[in-house]
Amino acid sequence: MKLQGFCLWLLSLRVHGGARRTAEGRDMPLIVVPVLLGILVVFITKLWDPIAEYVGYPLDVRRRVEDLQDAVQRLRSIQADLHRLDPRPSSEQGKGWVQSVQNLCLKEEKIKTGYDGCGLNYLSYCYFSKQADKEMKKATDLIVTGKELLKEAQAKPHPVRDVPPQHPQDQLWGMDSYKKKVRDFIQDTNTKSGLLGIWGMAGVGKTSLVKLFRDSSAEYAPLDFDHVLFVRAGRGCTVGDTQKAIAASMRLPVVPDETSQEGIIYNHFKDKNFLLLIDDLWGYLELKDVGIPMPLGIAPVLPLQEYRRKVVFTTRSKHVCGQMGCAENSIRLECLNQDDARKLFEDKVGKEIIKDTQLGMLARELADECGGLAMALCTIGQAMSTKKDPKEWRSAINLLKKSKLLEITNTDEELFERLKFDYDKMTENRKKCFLMCSLWAEDKNIPKEKLIEWWVGLGFLDASDSVNEGYFIINGLVDASMLEKGDNGLDSTENSHVKMHKMIRKMALWIVNDRGHQNIWLPHSVHRLAFSEEKWSKVERAWISTADTSRWSSSIRCPHLVMLVARQPFSLESAPNFEDITFLDLEGINLVKFPSEICGLDRLQYLNLSASEFDGLHEDLTKLSNLKYLHIRGIGGLQTIPKDLISQLKKLQLLDLFCSGATSHKVQYLTSLLEELESKTINLLYFGITVHTRADIEQLEKLFSSVCTQALCMDQFEDFFHERALARMSLRRCEFEDERHLKKIDLRLLSCLENMRELAITKSSVQVLVAEGHNEYGLLPNLGFLELRNLSKLQAVTWKNAGLDIRVVVINRCTKLRHATWVRHLQRLEELTISECPELKQVINNAEEAHQAGVSFCKLRKLKLELLPELFNISEQDFPFKELSYVRVADCEKLKFIKIQQRINQKKIRIDCNIGWWTSSVENQGIASSLFDPRFCL
């Protein structure tokens, strides 16, 4: 009870008592007591109440803060209702009220934040409680005023909300499958996920696809979406930007504070069904901070009521889908196929041009040059719609091939600028790696291993961890839609190769060639005309053709040339004039004599002379004092390397002699080279070599700390295991007692070479090959490539817990081999080639496999079977072959059955074969024609 109430009660008692005593005629002065008490009550009340109120602040701080929050929430609701009726208040009272509400929201947020962080502090409790009480009085007044303003606004005729007209959509060629996937996601009332990502390269049609759903929302009336919103994010978009876009779209109040704006958006959508379309998202966006109610999908609120909350966003990068948490619930939008691309292009240029036979043919050629990129087809098609002269069309085709888009469209090259956005956000080193891909010919598959080798040779990657770093960069470029997965074909797979889209490649060449004004980089091209000698004075990087070199003279000057690649033979007389060159790749040009002309290129750091025919290195090679990377693999006749040549190349980090010297009886340089590497203490981050004996391998083991052997060819290896060798390796005798007469190679001999990535065993009389590790990763853990070639007596292979990272297996001319059941245990196997094995009857022998558990080729993508006259089936068991995309069958006349389990929603498997073999197999029901896409090229 308050002190004032107690005093009044006491006063009443004294008044009654005084009255009685007066009646009895006693002590009249007592009537003065009530007067005195009244004065005392007034005095004590005025003194005590402020003290009691202040002392009570810290005891009731939580309630006061929560009351203020509730009041502010009511104000926000009134503000939202008022904004719908009167978005832009004209009266000064209305404007002042809105500003006061915004100020109060900011003050309330500060009080809440301060109270949450003050801990058990008496003085802080007093302060925040008093502040909450003060703002609460303001909130009460604002609520009253807001209700009055709301009544006034309701009494006035309020504006009708604008509804955008529903225009008929342009036909979207090639989009039917994507439209169905998005529609299924939106209409799915059972899904728990409400987030879908659509990703693909710039200009592929992502915006057009989501706009279709924005403008066709009537299709989803059964789902009763209260709102269908389209928001463009764009580069650098923040939570605040998205909030403003949504608020503008829904005509919600716009406040400067993101937290307050979040509350306004949340309160509007929390009890509504909505479809939110976010276009062109460049990075992670926290939807909850925007104000989007969670969870997305189908959100139950009552036993018989639920809300449908769907969000679809588009982005250029798959990485963004991962950041948003929907990597597995994403759709990649790819470029149009040739037919749909031509239809779109024809629509933009007009029917009149297409009707003309000659112009129509040229229009289709120009459309094909756009690579199915919708933005390019539209831009160039519209620019060419007025061109009626065939010469103009031929000129446009040539200009586009040269990346000179400006001369076709007469615009500011917006197409290339938009494609360049993704390039601009790369690191400088990744930009260099990306641009290097443009040197490969258009539409050609680029081997990942070769690309990484180039990056190392150009100094873009550190040789010590080049493989891991290189694959990381390649995968990042693929996820960013700057590169594409390679084609599945005879010499490539989508895992081993990548490609550059035509327009991305044109954009890259446009960048390096000064927006098309220079010819600084010359890519590999069969269409490019040969340059005159004076034009070569500006060239920096070139992949030359026979047409180029045919016009060279010995006096040609290339003062800026730093990189040269060639794949056809040409005269190297002019090589001394390439004074600044640092990178020279002449792989496969079949040089019969070592080109001594290159020994004067003292700035050279990378030299590749692989797959040639010369028999020895030149002693003047020591003049290449800056040489770091020397590739001379696959030179079968290589016999001599001058003594101490390698040790004099002080900067050498890579020496690749894999399979060099293998066609001769013995490699003559081997012993002296290994001794040189040991005595001179040379450090090599990569070493590829051909060996013949166990002693050679033991020598490599001694070099383990300074020389990293990553590629090994065991050629004519006849140093088989016998009792003493097996004992020295701590192997149990009984393992081989029953088969002592067989010649065996046990790959545990290579256990110390754990960094080895390539292994070839060639021209040996081995009968049994054994590879058994003690555990899953115990033997050859990094091996990725295995070749068994010309093993004429090989009968069996035992493989267990070894080389489990092997991706490629090649078996060639193993004439006694009847099956290759062991490959089934290679769980990462992607490519299998078996050829010229005349006794091979099955790839997998189920009788041999009965007591073992296999992995069922879960990663196999490519299968090549050639010149196998006795092969009658792959296996008696049906395999799923979930990843298989390419098969080649050549000269396997007895093979009539390829059993593959039925696959759902997967692309057909391309099969290269003879038309007669295909017809026979289909007629005998040995092959399910519905699973394959036959190419009769044999």
Looking at this protein, list some descriptive labels.
17-stranded parallel sheet, 37% helix, Rossmann fold, Single alpha-helices involved in coiled-coils or other helix-helix interfaces, single chain, 29 helices, elongated, 938 residues, alpha/beta
Please tell me about this protein's structure.
The chain is an alpha/beta fold and 938 residues long. It is built from 29 helices and 29 strands. Among the domains are: 3-56, no CATH class; 58-155, Single alpha-helices involved in coiled-coils or other helix-helix interfaces; 176-332, 3-Layer(aba) Sandwich (Rossmann fold), CATH 3.40.50; 352-411; 416-518, Winged helix-like DNA-binding domain superfamily/Winged helix DNA-binding domain (Arc Repressor Mutant, subunit A, Orthogonal Bundle), CATH 1.10.10.10; 582-688, Ribonuclease Inhibitor (Leucine-rich repeat, LRR (right-handed beta-alpha superhelix), Alpha-Beta Horseshoe). Helix content is 37%, strand content 15%. Helix 23 (546-549) links the parallel strand 11 and strand 12. The longest helix has 34 residues, at 122-155. It is elongated and about 130 Å long. Residues 13-28, 157-168 and 723-738 have low confidence and may be disordered. This is NB-ARC domain-containing protein. Keywords: ATP-binding, Membrane, Nucleotide-binding, Plant defense, Repeat, Signal, Transmembrane, Transmembrane helix. Residues 806-896 form the Disease resistance protein At4g27190-like leucine-rich repeats domain. Belongs to the disease resistance NB-LRR family.
